[in-house]
Structures are given as structure tokens and as C-alpha cells.
Amino acid sequence: MALPRQRVTLITLGVGDLTRAEAFYRAWGWTPHPASQDGVRFYQMQGAVLGLFGLSDLAEDQGRPDAVLGTGAMTLAQNMSSPAEVDRVFDDGLRAGAVALKQPQAVFWGGYSGYLADPDGHVWELAHNPYWPLADDGSLTLPASD
Amino acid sequence: MALPRQRVTLITLGVGDLTRAEAFYRAWGWTPHPASQDGVRFYQMQGAVLGLFGLSDLAEDQGRPDAVLGTGAMTLAQNMSSPAEVDRVFDDGLRAGAVALKQPQAVFWGGYSGYLADPDGHVWELAHNPYWPLADDGSLTLPASD
User: Fold this and answer.
1) CA-to-CA distance for A112 and B41, rounded, in angstroms?
2) In sequence order, which residues have a C-beta less than 8 Å from that of residue A38 and are 6 or more positions away?
3) How close, in Å, is residue A111 to chain B by CA atoms?
4) A27 touches chain B (CB under 8 A)
5) DSSP strand pairing (B10-15 vs B49-54)
6) Is residue B1 pLDDT above 60, yes or no?
7) What is the pTM of this model?
8) CA A71, B46, A58, B91: dihedral to nearest 10 degrees?
9) Residue A146 — very low, low, confident or very high, per pLDDT cuts 50/70/90?
10) Nearest residue of chain B to residue A32 (CA atoms)
11) Do A13 and B89 touch (CB under 8 A)?
């Protein structure tokens, strides 16, 4: 039986300094899984995994030079239960060493959103979308349309 | 109660041409959710969502010029049940218009992996990892370490 096509099971962030990156994510509340090995860190999410991997190693794995790899055009978001939770997790990120790109604010689509960048320039959005309820484990299933 | 910190609920790909991007993902087996609106496409995954959004809109949303946004340093992977399934989904991707970066092959960590880029340069890895069993719905939970 074929697996569902609409899946992402592993998100890999290429990082310039694995120690720095791990320290940032630890300070932001992320704990590496014991399956992490030398040169790579894995973090269990809901049915998927986030990985940190050296940028040059990642480029070599892709079969091309690391100079061509860039960040920002693919963003990761955490949807939150409230604007207050967006503010809190955003501030936690800044304290952990992230750079603020856009302070959390009410936005045109009716929600509340802010952007920050991790020490390697990977972009995270923290958002509250009142039209998208979250499950207790924090996972997101889109509501049926009207 | 605070939501788990280790979450990604929405992955957004900035795209130069939404029609082209939607056509590519449709040809690769992805069906937009009815909640998709003008200028954005959403795809339901296992507890998370993939979104397509105009690159310049995304840059504006981040509060910076689109010229600084790049791809490739953050990669998305689908873990597969077998090397044969990697080959099949990789070939499907090429037929849909992806560019091969690295043909699927046996790799140093004991698995089988290939890389391709979508029409906007977003990088996908298709991989079989014999040490990481998948659930029936295709989601990934890391095994306990030895």
C-alpha cells in the first residue's frame, strides 16, 4: 500500500555551527532526541522530525556547493492558541538569540503574527489564526470549508 | 496549558508563480484543501499543513525584500517504506517538472536517498531509512535509542 503523498516527515535545517544551533533551539525549549548522532540533531514533533545538520554537509548531500543554499523562501510556522501565546513564544525566541524580523501584530487575514530568524537565518512565523483550531497535542487539521 | 514547543504546524513555500507551483504539486499527487484562498494554496498533511504563497507576498509578510530570500538550506523530506518507493516517487517528481539534484542511491548512513528541486528551487529529499519505521499514515516517530 502506497504511503500518502502529502507528507513531510523530516525538515532539515542547514546550520553553520551545530553547537550554536543546538544551543539556540535548547534555549527556545527544544530537546534533542537520543537518536541524534555526531554531526546531526533530531527533534521529535507530532509525526515528523526536525533536524539540524551542517550546511556544508547538507550541500554535499544535495550534490552541490553550499554557497548556493539560501534561507527565508521556505518558512516554518507554529500556530498558537492565542495572541498572548504568540507574544510569549516570540519573546522566548529573542531571549534565546533569534533576530526579530516582524514584531507580532494583527494582520490582514484576521489573525496575529510575527516573524523571527534563527542564528542561521531560518525563518519562523509565530501566529494565532482564529479560524484554525488546534488539537490538544498542538497539531493542525484544516477545518472543512464553508 | 501551553502547547508543545517542538512543533511545525505550517510550512510555507514562497513561489514565483502560484499557478505553475500548484500545477507541479498537483502533478506530483498533491490536492489543495478547499480552505485555500486567492493567492494561497494549502495542503493537509498529518497534523500539519504545507502552503504555497507568492514569494514577494511572503517577503512583504516577513517585512523585507524578496531578493534576500533563498532556498535550499532548509530541506523537506519524505521518508519512504522502501528504496523502490523512493525511486517511484522521485520519478513521479521528475515527470511533474522537478529538477534532479541527486539520483536516488545508497548513502553512507545505511539508507537510500535522492534529492530534487521543485520549480522554485525548494529542495525535497526522498529517502528510505531502514532504522526509522513509519506508521500506517506515513508519519514518523523516532525509535527509542539503543
Assistant:
1) 20
2) none
3) 13
4) no
5) parallel
6) yes
7) 0.95
8) -110
9) low
10) B6
11) no
pLDDT in tens, B8-41: 999 999 999 999 999 999 999 999 999 898 899 9
Chain centroid to CA B104: how far? 16
Q: Which domains, and CATH codes, for chain B?
A: 1-70 (3.10.180.10), 71-146 (3.10.180.10)
User: Residue B43: is it exposed, middle or buried by C-beta count within 10 angstroms (0-12/13-18/19+)?
Assistant: buried
Cβ within 8 Å of residue A87, ≥6 positions away:
A104, A114
Cβ–Cβ contact A23 with B under 8 A:
no
Per the CB < 8 Å rule, is A74 touching B8?
no
Region B117-137: mean pLDDT is 96
Phi/psi of residue B90, nearest 5 degrees: -65, -50
Give per-residue pLDDT as tens, A58-96: 999 999 998 899 999 999 999 999 999 999 999 999 999
Give whole-number Cα distances, B27 to A141, B10, B43, B92, in Å: 23, 22, 14, 8
A141: left (phi over 0), alpha (psi -120 to 50) or beta: beta
A7-50 tens-digit pLDDT:
999 999 999 999 999 999 999 999 999 989 889 999 999 999 99
Q: How far apart are CA A52 and CA A11, in angstroms?
A: 9
* B70 shares contact with chain A (CB less than 8 Å): yes
Set of chain A residues whose Cβ sits within 8 Å of the Cβ of B74? 11-14, 71, 74, 76, 122
Q: Is A14 on the interface with B (CB under 8 A)?
A: yes
DSSP type of residue B68: G
